[in-house]
Amino acid sequence: MTSKEQIEKKGSSSSSSSSDKSTVSLDKHKRFISNYLYFHGTPEQKQKYDYRGYRSDHQVLRDNHQFIRDDEEDANDQENWEKQLAKKYYDRLFKEYAIIDLSQYKTGQIGLRWRVEAEVISGKGQFMCANVKCTCNDDSLNSYEVPFTYIESKVEKSALVKVMLCYPCSKLLHYTNIKKKKKELKRLLKKRQLEDNDQEEELELGNDGNNNNDDDDTIPQSIKKQKNNNGNDEEEEEEYIEKDITTSTTTTNDRSK
């Protein structure tokens, strides 16, 4: 093996996550126990100590984690060590602001999770944009209360979660609403243009066939303006829709806490 291959092998092994290491350790432990029972165990011991269904702590946390936990339910499950482990991890999370995943914004699907200690120290999610792929930390950040609907243990739940987003990411958050409003705007403008064209044709027919340019004064100024500035009006309306939707759900620009 060359020195380059050794370096690459060392780098790949050091980059493995703690969850992967935990899974490998558990698999190794189960293999040792299985070998011991196979060579030295009695049939009763083999049946009693069946390690095939055992899970790592990471797997237990994934199976028992809840976005918002019920204190009464946790109080009734004091003897369930798996739920107590998940509760202990849940208590270490910071729930004032959330981290948001907007990678699927075009389908209207978002992901939310609470912040960990390292993110609180770095300011991620409060003094820095909460989008996982954004590092914006200027004064354009605003607080948004997001109605979050999710499925947990085959039960649909909902919660109102606060996130800090910059203006570009806030447009991603409201992408589906903005797209819907723009479609309605285009449909309305098209309808209005057809009505104005019909009105203009009726006025032209009433001029007894006179095609002089001076007779254009009979056309109302509103129709002329709509005809000449239709494209500009549409752009202005779309820009207004984006600002209106992104600011209508804004709470306060609270970054001092």
TrEMBL record:
> Compositional bias of type Acidic residues: which residue ranges?
232-241
**Bias category Low complexity: which stretches?**
246-257
Highest rank taxon of the organism? Eukaryota
GO MF terms here are: phosphatase activity
Cited InterPro entries? Folate-sensitive_fs_Fra10Ac1, Histidine_acid_phosphatase
- Composition-biased stretches, type Basic and acidic residues, lie in 1-11
Cite the residue spans of the region called Disordered: 1-25, 197-257
Q: What is this protein's name?
A: Protein FRA10AC1 homolog
The organism is Cavenderia fasciculata
